[in-house]
Specification:
Length: 139
Amino acid sequence: MTSRQTERRPRWWPPFSEWFEDLPLDLRSGGEHPIRVEESREEGAYTVRAELPGVDPDKDIEITVDGGVLTVHAERAEEKKDKERSEFRYGSFTRSVQLPPGVDENDVTATYDNGVLTVTAPVPVPVRTEPHRVRITKE
């Protein structure tokens, strides 16, 4: 970059590489995650459903919860066949989702059925108390 080009750019203008740092990962990567999910919250439970067809849940999926973040890691191995064309996705895929506050990480459960992984986390119902007056005492 020449000194003349530098002069035209405002000082506050960030380098191009910094423009995308604050965007969610799905927007930075073209709008699509390798693992698609649905998130819902109802009746005291937070549920994440993930599309993971063609994987063995016993050996190809790993689920971890750390610091309030649920991470699903899966691997799909490519079958060794002579193919002319394949649009299937193979390899290692990871997706992380922030859990709601108050979720006990030890109570998270998961099931797998027909290519869909369902992870459920019980969410404690906040206890609401009526406002009350606090007495002031003199010492």
